[in-house]
Amino acid sequence: MGYTPIVLDSEGAYDSEFVRRLGADPTKFIIKQVNTITETSRFIANLCKKLQEQDEKYGQHDKIIIVLDSLGNLTSEKERDDTLSGNQKRDMTKQQEIKAMFRVNATPIARLQIPWVVVSHVYASMNMFSPGNVVSGGSGIIYNSSLTIELFKSKLVDKENDERAAKQAGKVTKNGILVTAKPQKSRFVITRPVTF
Hints:
The protein has helices at about 15-20, 35-60, 75-85, 95-110, 140-145, 160-165, and strands at about 5-10, 30-35, 65-70, 115-120, 120-125, 135, 145-155, 175-185, 195. With about 200 residues, it is an alpha/beta fold. The mean pLDDT is about 90.
């Protein structure tokens, strides 16, 4: 579709070989390793500034899609500095930095019509008044997202291929899982879960 993917990788999980295995061309795929929330926010803000300048000068800008994988693995500046100095105080700044990242970048990204996919982990809520899963990273991602989808995996049951794989032990293998995509929020449509 003419988009250049920019993956902001906080987990060290992406490289050219991984991109090739996904079926994508590594020469048209930008991978940037990120560590802190501030570094990530600054990169996105500067990128939007350059694209806005490009748009004003030429009447259009490069088509990009930004993928942040993952929000929960980003650290705050304080947490990083405390670790380097041996300070073991609790970090109370991470949620505020994440909210600031979304506040600073949500409008420029929307104005430039840049798709921004944010991967974040979930954990079970221990709150008896609001049970269920909670998105790692606080409310910044919840309030600023247009679409939130929670993915669940389960075992792929396929009796015919299971039996064939068992009979030809070592010669035939079976791979795969069932994924249920359960929308938690959408500004566009009435949501329903889909399994694939």
